[in-house]
């Protein structure tokens, strides 16, 4: 065989092989590589988006914690104010109850003193009658001398 003919035959076979490869083999490989590159790019883009979303979420969490702390401080302050108000109202109510009890006790003591005075007047009147009876050595009728006893009670007042 001739070296030139072999070389030309090998060139033709190589050209057919290159043509076949470029037409049927190469496009699916390129397509698979392009799809893979597209998936990698999408994954990188999603990772970048996730990083930014994470940073935003962290900022939101920090802001929400700050708001929650402020809100908690406001609630605590309001509760302390309400507790102080309730304590003051309870003290005022207790003072009113004590004052009412004191007034009631004074009124009761005054009424009791009045009853005791009346009882003492009656006893003094009886003693006066008994004394007058002894002086006169005769019995005095309390019904007959009711006016005398009433006058004597009025004088003792």
TrEMBL record:
Where does the UniProt annotation locate this protein? Cell membrane; Endomembrane system
Keyword RNA-binding in the entry? The reply is no
User: What topology does the record note for this protein and the membrane?
Assistant: Single-pass membrane protein
Q: Which UniProt keywords apply?
A: ATP synthesis, Cell membrane, CF(0), Coiled coil, Hydrogen ion transport, Ion transport, Membrane, Transmembrane, Transmembrane helix, Transport
Q: Which Pfam families is this protein grouped with? A: ATP-synt_B
CDD domains per the UniProt record, alphabetical: ATP-synt_Fo_b
> In this entry, which stretches build a coiled coil?
47-122
Domain of life, per lineage: Bacteria
Ion transport found in the keyword field: yes
Q: Which InterPro entries does the UniProt record give?
A: ATP_synth_B-like_membr_sf (IPR028987), ATP_synth_b/b'su_bac/chlpt (IPR002146), ATP_synth_F0_bsu_bac (IPR005864), ATP_synthase_B_chain (IPR050059)
- Which chain regions cross the lipid bilayer? 6-26
| HAMAP family hit by this protein | ATP_synth_b_bprime
Subunit details for this protein? F-type ATPases have 2 components, F(1) - the catalytic core - and F(0) - the membrane proton channel. F(1) has five subunits: alpha(3), beta(3), gamma(1), delta(1), epsilon(1). F(0) has three main subunits: a(1), b(2) and c(10-14). The alpha and beta chains form an alternating ring which encloses part of the gamma chain. F(1) is attached to F(0) by a central stalk formed by the gamma and epsilon chains, while a peripheral stalk is formed by the delta and b chains.
Biological role stated in the UniProt entry:
F(1)F(0) ATP synthase produces ATP from ADP in the presence of a proton or sodium gradient. F-type ATPases consist of two structural domains, F(1) containing the extramembraneous catalytic core and F(0) containing the membrane proton channel, linked together by a central stalk and a peripheral stalk. During catalysis, ATP synthesis in the catalytic domain of F(1) is coupled via a rotary mechanism of the central stalk subunits to proton translocation. Component of the F(0) channel, it forms part of the peripheral stalk, linking F(1) to F(0). The b'-subunit is a diverged and duplicated form of b found in plants and photosynthetic bacteria.
- Similarity field: Belongs to the ATPase B chain family.
Name of the protein in its database record: ATP synthase subunit b
Species of the source = Uliginosibacterium sediminicola
The record lists the lineage as: Bacteria, Pseudomonadati, Pseudomonadota, Betaproteobacteria, Rhodocyclales
